Amino acid sequence: MGKEEEEKKKKKKGKKGRRGRGRKRRRGGEVGEGEEEDEEEGGGGGGGGGGRGRPRLRWINDVKDNLRKYGVKEWRTKALNREEWVSILREAKDKLKGP
């Protein structure tokens, strides 16, 4: 084997692991060069599509469930009146503590 053949093999080996460099993976699984369109979209990926699986748990959902358990209706308007809201919270704490 000559020097030239060895150098060609080295070059081929070096390129093997470099597949896909310079390409961006977009949100739909599409592959393309880094085009200007991507920069203009303003981040966030766009494209809709939402997440997979169940929705994330939110604090407000727990609050609503707990208020429903205690029989509190129209809790948003009651929360605006500080005195009424404090009395609701006290009742809830007393129920949690038990006898």
Relevant terms:
single chain; mainly alpha; two-stranded antiparallel sheet; 53% helix; 6% strand
Tell me about this structure.
A two-stranded antiparallel sheet has the order 1-2. The N and C termini lie far apart (91 Å). β1 (23-25) and β2 (31-33) form a beta hairpin. Helix content is 53%, strand content 6%. The model has no long low-confidence stretch (mean pLDDT 75). The protein has a domain at 75-99. The chain has 99 residues and is mainly alpha-helical. The radius of gyration is 30 Å and the shape is rod-shaped.
Largest sheet composition:
2 strands, antiparallel
- Provide the succession of SSEs: HEEHHHH
Using only C-alpha atoms, the radius of gyration works out to: 30 Å
- Main sheet: which strands, in order across? 1-2
**Share in β-strands:** 5-15%
- Mean of the pLDDT scores? 75
N/C terminus separation: 91 Å
Give the fraction of residues assigned to helices.
40-55%
